[in-house]
Specification:
The structure is a single chain. With 395 residues, this protein is α/β, with parallel strands linked by helices. The protein contains 15 helices and 14 strands. It folds into three domains: 5-178, Aconitase, domain 3 (2-Layer Sandwich); 182-277, no CATH class; 279-393, 2-Layer Sandwich (Aconitase, domain 3). 42% of the residues lie in helices and 13% in strands. The strands form four sheets. It has a five-stranded parallel beta sheet, with helices on both faces. A four-stranded parallel beta sheet has the order 8-7-6-9. β10 (286-289), α11 and β11 form a beta-alpha-beta unit. The relative contact order is 0.13. The model has no long low-confidence stretch (mean pLDDT 98).
Length: 395
Amino acid sequence: MQLTKEQERMLAGDYGEVVERNFRLLVRLGEIYGADRMIPVGSVQVAGVSYKSIGDPGLEFLEDLAGKGARVKVPTTLNPPGMDLVDWKELGFPEDFAEKQLQIMNAFKRMGIMMTATCTPYLVGNLPSFGEHIAWSESSAVSFANSVIGARTNREGGPSALAAALCGVTPNYGLHLDKNRKPGFLVKVNAKLRSNSDFGALGYHVGKIVKDKVPYFKGVKDADVDQLKALGAAMAASGAVALYHVEGLTPEASMMDTNGLETIEIGEKELREAYGKLNTGKDPDIIILGCPHASLKEIATLAHKLGGKRLRKPLWICTSRVTKEAATRMGFTELIERAGGKVVADTCTVVSPIERMGFKTTGVDSGKAANYLPGFCKQAVVFNNIDELLKKVLA
């Protein structure tokens, strides 16, 4: 791998222990995957934020870095922690958990990382341009950045993303290269996709088949940003899809050759089967929406559905702090709270300790959440669209 003189100095320790250690990690990664050089990145999204995910060893690692003066070199945003950072007590998050989580957030803040606390950084200001090289972790954000925006990032882990933030570069391999962005499967969709949950079920089914390959979709009509977000998140969870193309919708689709690709046919039958596999419960203790984090449009939709109604069970919609503030200014938060629901900022159900909070069955409209909740949070899952979920919890 060809390094610049500046990069050789980083490797030699001329810029201190923190930079040397993290640059060495990037060099090793580049050597493993045959990178020819390092490339500058425009931004980074760091994962590994929830205390539930990283525990005491992760907290000690981050505090050590911050204590040694680690500072990011490029704009860097942060994934969701395991709780609402403001209203955690009111929502019932455990105090011992909260204490550790706040320490983690402080360590990231000391490194100069933006306290965005969201898995949808592209909705709160970290919006890369088409073709821009970035280094993002968080599987759903990676999928959205590559597929819907057309930026270029590999599916980074927490340590490699943080290393890229501290060094300002990432190895040039994988999805940074044109040859690796070509599709490996053609997916013909003959089913009607009406809701976010339909796109989640489709993504769950396809991810299981294609694993980490690039699928190209034909037959998907009029998908909006939230539906594409749901599709990519589910494929990233059930498989390891970091890039997909949708004919007529995503920016690189028209550049791709689909001749000779292995073909997958998806009809109503396959969609129903995906719903069946994701449903492991019947009567939800709580409904949690917003995985990935809800957009302002999704919050507005829920607020209008709850107008004048009353919930008999808890309902959360998870989003970023920035989006919640906008929802509050628009009166959406008040409408949801008047019905008995909560707009929960910062956190996400998958990385929250909901199993410690008395919940055993969770209702979701997210294929990603439905895939992860049984293992990560010991939850039975009720997976459906918003209208069907609300029928189960409205008085």
